Amino acid sequence: MTMIVEKKDAPLLECRFYHKPRYHPINQGSRSKKPIVVKFMLYLPIIPRLQRIFASMQTMPHMTWHHENKSQGMLRHPSDGEA
Questions:
Q1: Residue 36's pLDDT is what?
Q2: Rounded distance, CA 31 to CA 16, Å?
Q3: CB–CB of 4/39 below 8 Å?
Q4: Contact indicator for 15, 3 with CB cutoff of 8 Å
Q5: What is the mean pLDDT of residues 26-51?
Q6: What is the mean pLDDT of residues 53-69?
Q7: 3-class SS at 61?
Q8: Given a cut of 70, is residue 3 above it in pLDDT?
Q9: Which of 5, 10, 31, 79 has CB atoms 3.0–4.6 Å from 66's, for a disulfide?
Q10: d(CA 60, CA 47)
Q11: How big is the chain by its Cα radius of gyration, in Å?
């Protein structure tokens, strides 16, 4: 498990939860002055992507199919269930 770093956590050198270093140790002969992050995760916001999918006339019918074609009494998709 990793810590998601926000602006307030940027200057930290250790994880708040596990107290392990956030960066690989810098070697003496290394050219890189910038520390290398141990783990890196990209966060891609989903809302703008969904807005583009629903705005397209080709993909919009596929996105609304489960809502428009609900079946009574027969489970074809998890959206047909009660829960």
A1: 80
A2: 29
A3: no
A4: yes
A5: 79
A6: 80
A7: helix
A8: no
A9: 79
A10: 15
A11: 23
